[in-house]
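SUBJECT: A protein chain and its fold
Encoding: whole-number codes for local backbone shapes
Chain under study, with its fold:
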Amino acid sequence: MKNETGKDFFDEFTGESGKDANESFNPDPEMFSANFLEEVEQSLHESISLRRDLHGEQCVATNQIDKCWRCKDDWDKNRHVLAQCVRGFAQGTIGGSGGDNYLVTDPTDDDAANPKPGTLRFGVIQNKPLWIIFEKDMIITLKHELVLNKDKTIDGRGAKVEIANGAGITIGNVANVIVHGIHIHDIKKTQGGLVKDKEDQPARERFKSDGDGMTIFNSSKIWIDHCTLSNGFDGLIDVTLGSTAVTISNCKFSNHEKVMLLGADDTHEMDKNMQVTVALNKFDAGLGQRIPRCRWGFFHIINNDYQPWRMYAIVGSAKPTIISQGNRFIAPDGRRKLVSMRANATEEEWKQWNWRTVNDVFENGAQFIASGVDPILSPEQQQHMNIQPEPGSAVEHLTSCAGALSCTIGKPC
């Protein structure tokens, strides 16, 4: 299925970020999703071969993304290999690969307008590609939102890195960012102020932050992997304002109400070309809603583990396309059994939206109401779409290592 107005929209997009988004837009998302499914199916059968014995302990890579880099003794000497492992719509994102490593030694965030060398904020504003790593365990409390420059990887492997008790992360008007292996929790609304977001530009006045764990807007080629997110003031992850080519994978979400926003408003037609893969994540019991909340774009929700939610799981408006494949949905006790909810549309309208469920598993009365029709696919697309995803019954295994990993340098991770 091709987005009805995608090309026209990107013809009108201006600026570097718009050009990046235009180049990242995939005109055949079903075919792209099918390729990912094929790789996931292969990985489940191959994962057992990626087990190593280490003093009686086993390292197990349970899915296609992880088997690309995990369970190798020398991962810390070859960190940039991670950039070869992205799947889904963000495929091709390399973050800071090819650039220098930057070591965070200082967890403070005293001056957002003039950040000190050695701090995380100093690293993320540099104009060159950087692979950002951490000297030791640290809790970083941000006074203002952490605004990332393009071509960056934040790699928390080898330390327990927490962004906590302050502002969250902002990825705006940039391309090519990887965030891997960090904890984001207890994010607060913070006051506005002067914040430097590029090394060669003066600090700019920014409004107060909303209290989101991670905000992504007008950006492309963004990969969020193996992060643990919980207990923010607003959302845990927001993807809005023309962003596309995004993959959110292997993450663990817990203890929160509004989890994930993919498209901020029904009037934001710029999101018609948003393409997001939500894969291999674990949504813990007790999350409230928006798992995710979708508008306008094309959303591939595959092999995620949904524990009982409080209100509903997936909700959409403004005619999004949603392909739900190989997920496990465990409904809560009581009346809140609906997985898929439509908003701001009559039944006559939403019945035309393409919402499909394939090989999902529904437990405790969970219900997904499908709608629309199967798209007309080319012979090549049909070939790929005929490859079945891993069924929902495999999800517990596939997501068993979701969230930030405890990696020790010199040992398999």
Notes: Confidence is low (pLDDT under 50) at residues 1-14, 44-56, 376-388. The CA atoms of residues 141 and 267 lie 34 Å apart. The chain is about 15% helix and 30% strand. Helices lie at 6-12, 15-24, 29-46, 64-67, 120-124, 347-350, 379-385, 395-398.
